[in-house]
Amino acid sequence: MIKHHPSSKLLAGYATGELPASIAIGVAIHCKMCDQCQANVDALTAQLADQVFDAELTEPMAYENEQFDLASEAEAPMDMDFGNMIAAITADDEISEQSMVRSTSITVKGKNFELPAPLNNVRMSNWLNIGKLSRSSLNLDEGAIHSHLLHIDADGEVPTHTHKGFEITLLLDGSFEDDMGTYHPGDFIELNGEHNHQPKTKEGCLCYTVADDALQFTEGFHKLFNPIGSLLY
Amino acid sequence: MRYVMKQSTVESTRNKTIAPATKTRPMTTTAKESAPPELSQYLMAVAADRDKQAFAKLFAWFGPKIKRIAAQKLNNDAAGFDITQETMTRVWRKAHLFVPEKGAATTWVYTVMRNVIFDAMRKNKTQQAESLSDDIWPIEEQISEESPFQDHLMTKQLGELVKKLPPNQQEALTAVYYKQLTHEELAKQLNIPVGTVKSRIRLAVTKLKQQLGANND
Ligand SMILES: [Zn+2]
C-alpha cells in the first residue's frame, strides 16, 4: 500500500548516520513500515561496513601478530592504551539487556495514537490547536530544521502553502489527499520549494513532518494568516 | 617506512574467499586481505563464554580502525579514542545480540560504531544529551524480546535442537520464550541469581543460533 518512499539519497544518508536526527527519524519510521526500504538499507549498511573497514585494511594489526616490535615507535603508546582499554572493558561482566520494546502513546482530540519507537526519547511540546489542526513540536535542537507531529481532524485541510526549503511529510495514521493523490500510512512525501501543497483529509490523519523553513501560504485569504505558517510545520 | 600498499587492494579481493590469516603473515601482505571470516566466531565466543581472548582479537582488528574512522569524523583524536572505548564496550556487552545469519560481523560492529558516533556528534552540536541512535537504528530489535526465533519457533527443527540442550538451558529457554516469564520471575522460581538465568539463556540462544546457521548452509 505504501507508494511513496524516501529517495535513495536519504536511504544512504540514513545508513551512514549522517542525516540530521529529525530526518533520520522519518526514514527510520518509514523503514519500520516498509520492508522494501528496510532491505535496501540493510544492503547499503553491509556495503558501507565493507567500505569503511576495508579502507582501513592496510593498517598494522599488532595484537594479532603478537609482534609488537614491528609496530612503529609512534604507535607504541597507543597500543598500551588499547591494552588497558581491553582490560578495563573485559573486567566488567555485565551484559546489556535488550531494551523492552516500549511505546509512547499520545492523545489528540480524544483519539489515542501509539507513536513509533524512533520517537521514544524525543521531547515534545504541548499540543497547539488551530481549528482542525493540532500540532506538537519536537525538540531536537537542529537549528533551522523543525519537526512536528501534525494532526488534522476529519474534513480538515492545511491551507495551500509552499516552502523555501524542503518539507517531509510522513503519514503515520489515517489518510489524506492532495492534488497528487491519496496517501496512506507509511507514505513518505518529500517536497521542495517548487511544490504547492494543499493536503486535505476526509477521515483525519496524524503526520510526522520535517521542514527547514516556515511555510508560506500562497492563496488569497490565507495570506492574511501567513504568520500562522510558522506554527504549523 | 610504513606499509606501502595503500591503494592497490580492496576491490579486487572483496569476492574471494580468503584463507584464515596465518601466523606468519607479514603485515605487508595486506593486498590479499579482507575481513577475516573468524570475526563472527569471535563475536559468538564473546557472547557465549565471555571469551576475553576472542574479544582481544576483535579489538585488534576493529579497535585501531574505529579510532581512525571516528577521529576523522569528529575531527578530534581524543574523541576517536572515546568512541573506540564506547563502541568496543558495547560490542563486549551486546555480543549476544549479534545474529550471524543476518549479516557479517563487520556489518554488526559498523552499526554499533555508527550509533555511537551519531550520539557523540549530536552531543557536540546540540544541548541535548539523550541518545537517540538506538531508537533510530534499533540494533537490538534484530532479535525481538519476545523470541529470537519467532519465525522458526514452532518448527520441528528448532524443537529438536532445543531437546539437545542441557536441561537447565532448556528449562530457562522454555520459561522465558514459551511461558513468557521474565528473567527475574524465573530466577525467583528456581531460587538462583538472575545472572545465572541470563547466562543460561545466552548460552542456549548462542548454541541454537550456531546450529541453525550450520544447518541452513
Ligand atoms: Zn519504502
TrEMBL record, chain A:
Top-rank lineage group of the source organism: Bacteria
Domain ChrR-like cupin: 142-209
One Pfam family from the record: Cupin_7
Protein name: Transcriptional regulator
Protein's organism: Psychrosphaera haliotis
From TrEMBL, chain B:
A GO biological process held by the record: DNA-templated transcription initiation
InterPro entries membership: RNA_pol_sigma-70-like, RNA_pol_sigma-70_dom, RNA_pol_sigma70_r2, RNA_pol_sigma70_r4_t2, RNA_pol_sigma_r2, RNA_pol_sigma_r3/r4-like, WH-like_DNA-bd_sf
All residue ranges annotated as the RNA polymerase sigma factor 70 region 4 type domain in the record: 157-208
Molecular function via GO: DNA binding; sigma factor activity
Assigned keywords, A-Z: Sigma factor, Transcription, Transcription regulation
A UniProt-annotated Pfam family: Sigma70_r2
Domain RNA polymerase sigma-70 region stretches: 62-125
Family recorded in the similarity comment: Belongs to the sigma-70 factor family. ECF subfamily.
NCBIfam families listed in its UniProt record: sigma70-ECF
Name under which the protein is recorded: Sigma-70 family RNA polymerase sigma factor
Organism the protein comes from: Psychrosphaera haliotis
Lineage: Bacteria, Pseudomonadati, Pseudomonadota, Gammaproteobacteria, Alteromonadales
